[in-house]
Structures are given as structure tokens and as C-alpha cells.
Amino acid sequence: MRAPEIFHPHPAPPYRALPYPLATIRAGISGFPSPAEDYVGRTLDLNERLVKRPSATFFMSVAGDSMEGFGIHDGDTLVVDRSIDARPGHIVVALVDGEVIVKRYELIGRRPYLCSGNDRYAPIPIADLDCQVWGVVRSVIHEYPV
After folding, report:
1. I want to staple 116 with a disulfide (CB 3.0 to 4.6 A). Which of 66, 81, 91, 94 is the partner?
2. Active-site pick, 52, 103, 116, 139
């Protein structure tokens, strides 16, 4: 297994506004709105959308298949926020016995576990391990090959 890459936050990310029309895209078939509908020159900066607390945010790239059931795939980039206290159900980045991993934090029978999104990997009981939560995953950036 290769080591995950850690991208540290920059003090003030540059503003990068890109076109962002008001029209919402549907995943099903329900008719076609006019292509010009609600296109008012609105923009979106992904730093504003994905990074809520810049000083507490870092990025990591994912290696492996253990989180595919949660929509996190090999090569994806995670947006991780250190300022959020992990609660059951959160996806977290943690240092467990010297290894950096991404898992979902869960309570099973009132005991804390780090769980995969792939049945091939058993839940990790963390009560007796050296475990430090580095942050909670706020977003996953998944690129499609083109």
C-alpha cells in the first residue's frame, strides 16, 4: 500500500470564480428546460463551496478500495476539516498505530470502530489502539477519466 499524499492548506486560496448557472441538472428524465433558462452570469468558487474553514482544512489523496461503498475511490481527493469533532457516521482521516487511514467512525454496541465501505475489510476496534483522528471528511473530489 502506498503512503497517502497530504496537501497542506494555503493561508488564503486565490479566488477562482467559474460559471455556475442557476439551472439544476436532474439525474432522471423529466423534460428539458431552456438552455438559456436562469443563466444570469452567476459564478462559483470551489474554495468557497468546499472549504468552510481554510485554516483547519487540508487535502489528502486516497489509495485503495476499502471506502468504495461510501463513494470514495482510489485516486480521489478528500477535503478534510480538522475543526470538526468526529461523531458516529462521520468519515474520518485517522492515524491508527502509525498508519494514516480513512474510515467511517461508528459505535457498535457502544464501542468505537473505524469501518470500511467494503465488506472485505473488518471493522477496526479503536478502544485499545493508538488512534488519533486528524479530521472529518467534508467532501470527496472524484475525477472521471476523459
Report:
1. 66
2. 103
Look up the domain containing 130 and give its range.
Answer: 52-141
Task: Please check whether residue 26 lies inside any domain of the structure.
Answer: no
- Over the chain (146 residues), what is each successive 10-residue block's mean pLDDT? 49 62 62 57 80 91 96 95 96 94 96 96 91 95 90
Residue 52 known to be catalytic? no
What is the tally of structural domains in the chain?
1
Question: What is the structure's pLDDT at 2?
Answer: 46
- Residue 5 falls inside a structural domain: no
pLDDT at residue 6, rounded to an integer = 52
Residue 69 lies in a domain: yes
In a domain, 17, yes or no: no
As a whole number of angstroms, the distance between CA 140 and CA 12 comes to 21
Look at residue 104 and give its three-state secondary structure: strand
- How far is it, in rounded angstroms, from Cα 97 to Cα 24? 44
d(CA 72, CA 76): 7
CATH number for the domain that contains residue 129: 2.10.109.10
Catalytic residue (choose from 30, 66, 116, 139): 66
Q: Looking at residue 1, what is its pLDDT? A: 40
139 given a catalytic annotation: no
